[in-house]
Design goal:
- The chain is an alpha/beta fold.
- It folds into two domains: 300 residues, Rossmann fold (3-Layer(aba) Sandwich); 120 residues, Topoisomerase I, Chain A, domain 4, CATH 1.10.132.130.
- The protein has 17 helices and twelve strands.
- The strands form three sheets. It has a six-stranded mixed sheet with strand order 2-1-3-7-8-11, with helices on both faces. Strands 4-5-6 form a three-stranded antiparallel sheet.
- A hairpin with a 2-residue loop joins β4 and β5.
- α14 runs parallel beside α17.
- The longest helix has 34 residues.
- Bound molecules: 2-acetamido-2-deoxy-beta-D-glucopyranose (3 copies).
C-alpha cells in the first residue's frame, strides 16, 4: 500500500517536472519552450462612432500583450484612430473597454491609422511584404521559421468576408495569405482570433487543415457576434465585444505559462454563449501554453490596473447586443432619453434611413437572382421559385464552398451595387449569403452571376 503511494508520488513529481520544464525559457534549460520570437498583429477593421468597441478591444489587446512581456517592436497595430478624439467622445483622448473605465488608449502604439488601415496593407503586414505596404510606418511582421504569430482582428463581417474601413477582405484572400505564409515558413505556428458576425465562415472548409494555423471565431457562419457593455453609465456605445472581452479579461489575470490555448478556448466558448465560438485548423496547438502566443510574463500590475478581477459575466451577457443592431439599439436608447424635439427628429430620421438601407440591400439581392435566371426560366413562376429558393438560408449558405467565385462576386456586388460602400456595406452584410448561395449552386458560372450584378446595378446604383 505504502509503496504504491510512493510510486504515485514519484510519477506525479516527474510529470510536474516535465510540465514545468516545458514552459521554461529555452535559453536556460532547452526544454520544450520553442525557440524564436513572438509577433503579433492586432486590427480594428472599422471606423465611426458606433463602432467604438472595435478600437477599444484593439487598444486593450495591445496592453494585454505588452503586459505579458511581448516587446512593442513585435506588436503591429492597425486602428483607424477616429474614436478617442471623436467629437462625440465626452471623454476626450480616452477609450474604455469595460465599465471599470480604465483608459486603454493611453500608451497604445498605432502603426497604421486612417485609410492606411486596409485589406492590402493587412495582408502585406501579415506576409512580411514591406514592398507592398502603402502608408503607415511601413512595419511588417518580420518573422521566420521558428517564430510564432498571434493575430487578433475585430470588426463587422458577413458570410466569407470581413470589413476594413473602406474595403473588404474575403476568405479567399485571407486563406491564400495564410497558406502562402505557411509555405514560405513565416512562422512555426500562427494563432488567429477573429471577432465578427458569421466569422466561422472565414475558416470553415477553407482554412487548409494541414498548415500550422489555428483559428478561433467569435461566432459560427450563421450568426451574429455580440457587442457588450452596451448599456453603460457613461452613455457610450458598446464598450467591447463579448468574445473579445472574454478572452482579454481572461488573459489579463491568468498566468499564461500555465493556461493552454485549448483551455482559453473552452473558457471563452462557455462564457460567450450568445453565439457559438468555433475553432479550426491545427488542433494540436490547443495543448500549447498561451504564453507562446500572448507572452510569458506575469501581468500583476496590469491586472491590478484593470480592476483586478474579471467583470461579472452576467453583466456582460445582460448588456450584450447583436453586433448588427448596436447602432439602432443605441439610437433607440438615446431616443428614449431625450426631451429635445429636434434631436428626436434627427434620431428618428436616422433610424428610418437605416431601415431603408437594409430593405434596399435585400431588394437588390432579390433582383440580382431574378436577372440571373430571367433568360433561362421557362416561366415567370419558375423564376419566382428560384428567387425564393436562393433568398432562403440552407445548410450550406454559411459555407464558402467556392472561394474563388465568392471572392469575385462579392467584390463586384460591393463595387457596383452600393453607392457609398465604405459607409453602407454593413447594411448589406446580412444578405451576402444570397451571393454565396448562388456560388454554391452555380460555381462554374461566376461570370454569369457577375453579369447579373452588373445588369442590375450598373445603371441604378441602389444602396
Ligand atoms: C509584395 O508586394 C508587391 C508589391 O505590391 C507585390 O507585387 C508582390 O506580389 C507581393 N508579394 C506577395 C507575396 O504578396
Ligand atoms: C496551400 O498551399 C499549398 C502549397 O504549399 C497548395 O498545394 C495548396 O493547394 C494550397 N491550398 C489552398 C487551399 O490554397
Ligand atoms: C449563458 O450563460 C448564462 C450565465 O452562465 C446563463 O444564465 C444563460 O442561461 C446562458 N444562456 C444560454 C443561451 O445558454
Amino acid at each position: 500500500m505504502r509503496s504504491i503511494f510512493v510510486l504515485l508520488l514519484l510519477v506525479a513529481t516527474v510529470a510536474a517536472g516535465s510540465v514545468y520544464s516545458r514552459y521554461k525559457s529555452s535559453s536556460s534549460e532547452g526544454g520544450d519552450e520553442p525557440d524564436g520570437d513572438l509577433w503579433a498583429l492586432i486590427v480594428a477593421g472599422s471606423n465611426g462612432w458606433f463602432n467604438y468597441r472595435h478600437q477599444a478591444d484593439t487598444a486593450h489587446a495591445f496592453h494585454v500583450l505588452k503586459a505579458h512581456g511581448v516587446p512593442e517592436e513585435n506588436i503591429i497595430t492597425m486602428m483607424y484612430d477616429d474614436i478617442a478624439h471623436n467629437p462625440s467622445n465626452k471623454y476626450k483622448g480616452k477609450l474604455f473597454n469595460s465599465p471599470k473605465y480604465v483608459d486603454v488608449y493611453e500608451g497604445v502604439k498605432i502603426d497604421y491609422k486612417g485609410d492606411d488601415v486596409n485589406a492590402e496593407n493587412f495582408l502585406n503586414v501579415l506576409k512580411g511584404n514591406s514592398s507592398g505596404i502603402k502608408g503607415g510606418n511601413g512595419r511588417v511582421i518580420e518573422s521566420g521559421p521558428d517564430d510564432r504569430v498571434f493575430v487578433y482582428f475585430t470588426d463587422h463581417g458577413a458570410v466569407g468576408l470581413i470589413s476594413f474601413p473602406n474595403d473588404i477582405l474575403t476568405t479567399k484572400s485571407l486563406n491564400d495569405a495564410l497558406n502562402w505564409s505557411n509555405k514560405n515558413k513565416r512562422f512555426a505556428d500562427l494563432v488567429f482570433y477573429l471577432e465578427a458576425c458569421e466569422s466561422g465562415s472565414m475558416f470553415e472548409r477553407v482554412l487548409p487543415a494541414t498548415i500550422n494555423v489555428y483559428a478561433v471565431s467569435a461566432a459560427n457562419g450563421k450568426e451574429s457576434s455580440w457587442g457588450t457593455y452596451c448599456e453603460n453609465d457613461r452613455g457610450l456605445p458598446c464598450l467591447g465585444d463579448l468574445f473579445s472581452v472574454n478572452w482579454m479579461e481572461d488573459s489579463d489575470v491568468e498566468d499564461l505559462t500555465v493556461e493552454t490555448v485549448g483551455e482559453q478556448f473552452k473558457i471563452v466558448q462557455k462564457e460567450t454563449n450568445k453565439s457559438h465560438v468555433c475553432h479550426f485548423g491545427k488542433m494540436k496547438t490547443e495543448t500549447d501554453p498561451l504564453s507562446w502566443f500572448q507572452g510569458a510574463e506575469k501581468s500583476v500590475k496590469h491586472a491590478r490596473r484593470n480592476g483586478g478581477l474579471k467583470s461579472s459575466l452576467q453583466h456582460k451577457l445582460d448588456t450584450a447586443v447583436p453586433s448588427r443592431d448596436v447602432e439602432t439599439e443605441h439610437l433607440k436608447r438615446q431616443l428614449a432619453m431625450t426631451n429635445d424635439a429636434d434631436e428626436e427628429e434627427i434620431i428618428r430620421d436616422r433610424l428610418d434611413e437605416i431601415q431603408m438601407k437594409k430593405a434596399t440591400a435585400r431588394r437588390t439581392m432579390k433582383s440580382v437572382v431574378s436577372v440571373m435566371y430571367d433568360d433561362e426560366a421557362d416561366t415567370l413562376l419558375e423564376n419566382n421559385k428560384r428567387r425564393v429558393f436562393y433568398m432562403e438560408k440552407n445548410d450550406e449558405s454559411s459555407i464558402v464552398n467556392y472561394p474563388e467565385c465568392h471572392h469575385k462576386v462579392v467584390h463586384t456586388y460591393r463595387r457596383l451595387c452600393i453607392a457609398n460602400p465604405a459607409e453602407d456595406m454593413e447594411y448589406a452584410m446580412p444578405y451576402v449569403y444570397v451571393l454565396n448561395n448562388l456560388c454554391n449552386a452555380e460555381a462554374g458560372r461566376s461570370h454569369d452571376i457577375m453579369e447579373a450584378i452588373i445588369e442590375q446595378c450598373l445603371e441604378k446604383t441602389l444602396l
